[in-house]
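Spend some time on this chain, tokens included, and walk me through the fold:

. . .
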Amino acid sequence: MDTEAGPGPVPYVPGTGRPAPEADPGLVARWRSGGGELVDLLSQVREELGGVAAFRLGPAPTVLVTDPQAVRHVLAVCPEQYVKRSHRARLLVGDGVLAATGTAWKRQRRLLQSQFTGTGMRRYEHRITAAARTTAERWGAYARTGQTFDVGQEMHRFALDAIWRSLTGHPLDDETEHELSAVAAVGAALPTLPADPTDAHNAVAADLARIDTVARHAIEAARNGAAGPDGPGLLHVLIDAATEQPEYTDRLIRDELVTLLAAGHETTATTLTWLYLLLDRHPAAREHALADSADPARRRLAVQALVHETLRLYPSAWLLPRHATEDDTLAGYTVEAGTDILICPYLTHRDPELWPGPEHFDPRRFLTPAARPSHPGAYLPFGIGPRACLGLQFALRESTTLLELLLPAYTLTFHSPPPKTSYGITVRPDGPTPATLEEASLT
């Protein structure tokens, strides 16, 4: 939960405030005719009109929010007034905590939250470390043989292994990995699926069936007491909840399992892939992160700074839609009930008034507090407020653990980095990431 102190919400008083500045319809028309990404339109709206601005894609206005104080107002101060509606990933995750709302969401969040605190994370640390060591062994083989491999696929494999061990107590085997590739396939397809729910389901029915089969077998094994070599996992927490909370049917347990699988590996894998692409262009950042080799604590902070700067440029949640349920005043502007709100961390993180040289990859921003904005709404790669990502600590622990093994040991060379960026549910490289490894000379 977000507990950052600050002023309370500004009540809406009819007649106060003014409508948010609205983009010229011609801007939207030119964007439509040019076939650009949504982020292109949002960037132009922000550049021309500022951190709270309206535009129309249909009959009703949408308000883009990138100003940090307004971001905090929507997500952390007044979350009951600005709510999530149907999540784009509902087809995949069903009624899992990512897509749930209202009382159901509060109940599901409460159950899972304790598993992702600092204390709760300790029970999964050795599983994350085991997944990282398995990845490091593969990379050692790549370095010895000179084999070309896909960095994105490797990062997905690592992150999926880490969350699978944490969920079930079992390491990821080849067959399970193959079947769970359907999770990423459905996630990638979501932005382009038909609007009709039945047509959308039919388009990915085969992949959903593969996911359901893996989930059903995992639930049955856990219910029959088949804990893995690492002992019971998160899945057992969900199954135990069903004994006291009848809401936890097999279907809801499946939905939570798939939610944790999808959210627990896709964002981490994408962040790590971006990080290595950025290091390929900025090799001095790796050298700086490893400079304090004699001080493990300082090195860890430097490695974490690499992760945070990557998340600044490519946040896990690049767009956070909300819906205003009642009239409000937002940064001095009136927002009427029924307005759609788009929070865009991607643009907030690239605002030159907040982040000097925003397009430049500079992890040192996160080693000196004065080098980055202090407002909580200025840096939110996992969101802020009550609906901030539960897996923040898990993702950071995964990334740091793997990088502490790989960065000192290997240097990586990309052969053909993806030329474009894809803006779907996550922001990811648009294409394969083939590379080779060498053993590092810097230790």
